[in-house]
Specification:
The protein has about 475 residues and is an alpha/beta fold. It has a single domain, classed as Alpha-Beta Barrel (TIM Barrel), CATH 3.20.20.80. The chain is built from 16 helices and 13 strands. This is Beta-glucosidase. Its EC number is 3.2.1.21. Belongs to the glycosyl hydrolase 1 family.
C-alpha cells in the first residue's frame, strides 16, 4: 500500500561545515577545535584531518546542482564559526561571502536553506580561553549568530542554534573522544549549561531582530528501554541513560529545569563537580534557556536496550568510538552498573542497531511530554555501510536503501499517529569527514571519491529521489 506525506512536509539532506568544506585555512579562516584535535596523535582513525574534506568550499555549485537533481526541497548546512569570525574575533567578510553565495545558489535551485550556527567547530582560540566551560562564551556565540544574520537574515528563514549539545559537552569535555578532548565531569557539566545558555541568548537576540524567523535547536536523542520492564536494576539503568542523554537537554529547554534525579546521581559520584555547575547556573538562566522555540530538530540513529546486570559477551556502550580510550560519555565515572543488551537486530558499520520503530516512538514521546505545539523535524537520520563500487562505477547500496525506506516510513507512522512532524533530513548528502572516524565511515547517498573528489549518486540517492518525487512511501 502506498502512503502519502502531507503537502507541506519537507524532504531534505544534511551536512556540516567541517565535514565537507575543506579550505581549512583559506580566505581568512583559522583553526577550529577540530582542526587542532584531529592533529593529536591517536585522536582520529587513520590520523586524518579535515583540511580538504569534500572540497565543498570550491565545489558548492556542483553540489547544489546534485541536490536539485535529487529533488531535495531543503538543505541543512552549518556555518563555520572559524570562517565567519576567525579566532572568535572580528567578522571575516570573505567567510560570510561564501555562505551568501551558497544561499543564493540554493534559492536559485528552489531549495530552502536550513542553517545551523554551531555544528561542533568552535574557534580553537576560544577553546584556549576556556571554551564552553566559561560563561562569556555565550556572549561570543550570540555575537557570531548576529554576524551571520547580518549577512543572511534577508534570505534565510530557518535557523538552528546548536547541533547535538550532548556531543559538544559530554563527548567533548567529559569523554574526551571529540574535540577538544577534555576528560572532566565538571567541564562536561559546565559546557552543557553554557551551550544551552548560548542557545537561549541567540534565540532571543535573533527574534528581537526579526520576529518572523523560524528558530530552533537540534538534539540527538535515543530510546532507552529496560531489558526487563519489571526489574528494578534494568529500570534504573534505562532511567540514567534517558536522563543524561535525553532529559538533561529536553527538561531545561521545555520545562525550565534540569532533571533532579540525574543531578542527584552525579552528586553522589562527584559532589564538587555538581557544586561548580550549580554555581554556574545563575538566576534567570533557565528562563533564557526555555525561551519558546519555533521548531525542534531530532537526530536519531538507534535506540538501546539496557540492563543493570552483566551481559554475556560484555556488550559495550554503542556510543563508544573504537580505538579511543575512554570510560564513558556520561558524567558518571563508569557504566559498570549499566549494560547494553544484544537483541539480535542488524547492525551498521558503526556498530549501531537498526531500529526504525524507535524513531516513531521517540517522536511520539517528545511530542507528548515536551514539545507540545512546537513542530518537530527529523534533522538527521542515516546509516554507514562499507559501500562497494561496481565495475560499472555504480554503488548498489541495498542496505542503505532499506534503512532509508524504513525510517522515512517510521516518520510517516508518527505523523499518522498525530505527531506534528514537518520534515526529514537524511544524513548525509554525501560521504564526508566523519569526525573521529575520519574518512573511514560512509553515510552519504552520494559517494565521494576522496582522491578525485568525484561525486556519484548511489542507489540510495536515486531511491530517495523517487520517494521525494512521489511524496509517498
Amino acid at each position: 500500500m502506498t502512503r502519502s506525506f502531507p503537502d507541506d512536509f519537507l524532504f531534505g539532506a544534511a551536512t556540516a561545515a567541517y565535514q565537507i568544506e575543506g579550505a581549512a585555512f583559506e580566505d581568512g579562516r583559522t583553526a577550529s577545535i577540530w582542526d587542532a584535535f584531529a592533529r593529536v596523535p591517536g585522536a582520529v582513525v587513520n590520523a586524518d584531518n579535515g583540511d580538504i574534506a569534500c572540497g565543498h568550499y570550491h565545489r558548492y555549485r556542483g553540489d547544489v546542482a546534485l541536490m536539485k537533481e535529487l529533488g531535495l526541497q531543503t538543505y541543512r548546512f552549518s556555518t563555520s564559526w572559524s570562517r565567519v569570525r576567525p579566532d572568535g574575533g572580528a567578522v571575516n567578510a570573505k567567510g560570510l561571502d561564501f555562505y551568501s553565495r551558497l544561499v543564493d545558489e540554493l534559492l536559485g535551485a528552489g531549495i530552502v536553506p536550513w542553517l545551523t550556527l554551531h555544528h561542533w567547530d568552535m574557534p580553537q582560540a576560544l577553546e584556549e580561553q576556556g571554551g564552553w566551560t566559561v560563561r562569556d562564551i555565550a556572549d561570543r556565540f550570540t555575537e557570531y549568530a548576529l554576524s551571520v544574520h547580518d549577512a543572511l537574515g534577508d534570505r534565510v528563514q530557518h535557523w538552528t542554534t546548536m547541533n547535538e549539545p550532548w556531543c559538544s559537552s559530554f563527548l567533548s569535555y567529559t569523554a574526551g573522544v571529540h574535540a577538544p578532548g577534555r576528560t572532566s565531569i565538571r567541564d562536561g557539566l559546565l559546557a552543557s549549561h553554557h551551550l544551552l545558555l548560548a542557545h537561549g541568548q541567540a534565540v532571543q537576540a535573533l527574534r528581537a531582530r526579526d520576529a518572523d524567523l523560524d528558530l530552533g535547536i537540534t538534539l540527538n536523542l535515543t530510546v532507552a528501554d529496560p531489558a526487563d520492564a519489571d526489574d528494578p536494576l534494568d529500570i534504573a539503568a534505562a532511567r540514567r541513560i534517558d536522563g543524561q542523554f535525553n532529559r538533561w537537554f529536553l527538561d531545561p529547554l521545555f520545562l525550565g529545569e534540569y532533571p533532579s534525579d540525574i543531578v542527584r546521581d552525579i552528586r553522589a559520584v562527584d559532589p564538587a563537580a555538581v557544586s561548580d555547575w550549580q554555581d554556574a547556573v545563575h538566576d534567570g538562566d533557565l528562563a533564557v534557556i526555555s525561551t519558546p522555540l519555533d521548531a525542534l530538530g531530532i537526530n536519531y540513529y538507534h535506540g538501546e536496550l539496557l540492563s543493570g546486570h552483566p551481559q554475556p559477551g560484555g556488550e559495550g556502550d554503542p556510543h563508544e568510538t573504537p580505538g579511543q580510550q575512554r570510560e564513558t560519555a556520561s558524567p558518571f565515572p563508569s557504566h559498570e552498573d549499566i549494560h547494553w543488551v544484544e537483541r539480535g537486530l542488524p547492525r551498521t558499520d558503526m556498530g549501531w542497531e537498526v531500529q526504525p520503530d524507535g524513531l516513531t516512538r521517540l517522536l511520539r514521546r517528545v511530542a507528548d511530554e515536551y514539545s507540545g505545539a512546537v513542530p518537530l523535524y527529523v534533522t538527521e537520520n542515516g546509516v554507514a555501510y562499507d559501500d562497494v563500487v561496481g565495475s560499472d562505477g555504480e554503488v548498489a547500496d541495498a542496505g542503505r536503501v532499506a534503512f532509508l525506506r524504513d525510517h522515512v516510513a517510521a516518520t510517516l507512522d508518527a505523523i499518522e499517529q498525530g505527531v506534528d512532524v514537518r520534515g526529514y533530513f537524511y544524513w548525509s548528502l554525501m560521504d564526508n569527514y566523519e569526525w573521529a572516524w575520519g574518512y573511514a565511515k560512509r553515510f552519504g547517498i552520494v559517494r565521494v571519491d576522496y582522491e578525485t573528489q568525484r561525486r556519484t549518486v548511489k542507489e540510495s540517492g536515486r531511491e530517495y529521489a523517487r520517494i521525494i518525487a512521489a511524496r509517498a512511501i
